[in-house]
Structure formats: C-alpha cells, structure tokens
Amino acid sequence: MIDTTALFSSPLFEQCIIVPPSFRSWIYAISVHGVCSLIGLIIGILLYSSKPTTEKKLSTCWTALGVGALSAISVHIGRSFIESYSPCSEIKFAGPWLASTFGFATFFKSLNVAFHMYPPGADTTLKTWLIWFISLPEPKFDKEKLGKINRKEFINNILDFIIKILVLFITLSILLQFPSPGSTIIEKVSASSPGNDNWDDVIDNQWLLITHIDGFFHLWLLYLFVSFCLDFSAMTNSIAFGGIRMELGFCHPLSKSRSYKECWGSRWNKPVNELLKRTIYIPSRKNGYNQSISAVFTFFGSGLLHEYNFSIHNKNNYHPGEVTVFFLLMGLIMIGESWVWNRCVPNGFKPL
C-alpha cells in the first residue's frame, strides 16, 4: 500500500500554484483563431463559387482537394512562425493547436464539398455556407435551414460549460500536485527528503499505480480541455450568428459510455466524428465494404488526422506512427467488443 502521509506531506505540494492565462495569452489565441477564420472565409467563398455540377464536377474535386491540402500543408510549414508570437512558453502549443485544427477541418470539409457530402441546406446561401464551412462544431440544420436554439437549451449549455470549467480546474490542480514516475520534480523532492524511507518506497515500488492514476487524470484533462474549446466555440458562434443551434462537441463520453462503440461512435469528439463519417465511413459503405472494414478505414483516417495534428502542436513528444496504431487498436477492440456482445449476451442486457 502507498503511504499517503509521506506522499501528500512532501515538498512537492508546496510548489503547485495555478497561474491563470494572461490577457496577452488570450489575445494570442484569439488572433490565431481570427486569422484562421479569415483564411477559411476566403477558401469557403472560393469553393462556394465552384460547387459541384455535372459539367465541372471533376474540376471542383481538384479545386477542393487542392485548397484543403494547401491549407493543411501551410499550417504545418508555418508552425514555427505561429509559435514565435506566443507570449509565454506555457501556452506556446495553443497557437499551433488552433491552426492545425483549422488545417485538418478545412481539408476534410473540402473533401465534403468535392464529393457533395455536406449537410443538406448548407449551400442555400453564401452566408449559410460560410457558417457551416468555418464552424467547428458545425451548425445543426432543420429541414435544410439553420436550426434555432431556445432559451432553456442555451442556459443548460452555459451551466454545463461552467461545470466543465470547474472540473477542469480541479483535474489540473490534482495533476499539478500528483507526481509522475521519473519526472524531474520527483527527483528534486527525493533529494530534498533524505532518509525518508516511506517516500522512497512510494517512488520505487508504487510507480505503476502512480502511472495509472496519472494517466486517468490526464484522460479527463484531455477531454475537459477539448470539450471546453468546442463548447466555447459553439456558444460564441451561436450568439454571433443570431442564436443558431450548434452541434455538441462531446456527449459525456467518460461518464455515460457503456461500451467502446458508444464512446467512439456517438459521444467522443462529435464534430471530428461527423467529418470522418461523411468522408470515410459512408463512402466505404456505399462502395460495398461491410461495417467492420469501414470502421477500420475510419479509425485509420482518424489516426492520420491525429498524426498531422500532434506533429504540429506536440512535436517535442510526437513519435510518428504511435497514434495511428492506437486508433487502429481502438477500432479492432470496438469490433471485437461488438462481436462478443452480439453472440454472447442476451438482447435484454446489451448496452450497444
């Protein structure tokens, strides 16, 4: 057992102070987002002017694929330029992360345009088209028109957003105070606690448990941070565009999912899920591939998407190929899980 007295009375806890983002940091993040949105508007106008028709479908495909690939490549090349304007090293990843998200979203939406896979009603007017093209999450369409959010739904979204911020701060506080095996700060704490056999036992014998707990909180931190960004974007876009209804970013994947299929299929990162579904899964099914093969293709595409994203904003810890293997493994686990449930569990007990 871990001696929690030694763990929580260590000098480690005396060094943990949460510093909120500065005003310059907010200006930095908003500026990167604003520049990306402006570029997205230009690309959106270009694609709207060359929407697929029977006569020029091929040229439209090349146009869409070209601008999508160009935007992604440009973001990748411009990573150092974006980082150089970061006001502090702690949030240097924010600019490249926002830009890389813009890069892959523009690429996939350009594919949607090329193969006419965008939501019905998105091309009704140029305004509607641009709202769809630059928004992540995307707006909801009701009978090919932009849906309107009601007051109760908007208030519930705000309350949910506030709760996520509070849990995000709590999770971050725990992570800042909890040691990671092999970290520099643990070495410093060990050096500052000579002769403390209890603390040495924690480091030497309990590293595996510490790693799992640390990973658990990091998973929550990842979910809460990305969910915070998507919810913030959805609420600001809803207000800016006259109270339109936006798609959810996440749907409680870590607290309400009862299976891998439910988590990955309908709860985790729904905007990216929708892009991959339109671009890879549905075309694969239409071309005769079964659900399992189409799912593997989709998870492979998700792996490549994240390879691009991680290589830009997390280059120091990025190892090529690892994230693709992870997503392929998740796809295979999901397929295996479905096989077991379909053959071994009575219908009344299936959570899928």
TrEMBL record:
Q: Does the keyword Cell membrane apply?
A: no
Protein's name according to its UniProt entry = Wax synthase domain-containing protein
GO biological process terms held by the UniProt record: lipid metabolic process
Wax synthase domain boundaries: 252-328
Q: How does it sit in the membrane?
A: Multi-pass membrane protein
Phylogenetic lineage: Eukaryota, Sar, Stramenopiles, Ochrophyta, Bacillariophyta
List all membrane-crossing ranges: 26-48, 60-77, 97-118, 158-178, 217-236, 323-341
MF terms from GO for this chain are: O-acyltransferase activity
Q: Which keywords has UniProt assigned to this entry?
A: Membrane, Transferase, Transmembrane, Transmembrane helix
What is the similarity comment for this entry? Answer: Belongs to the wax synthase family.
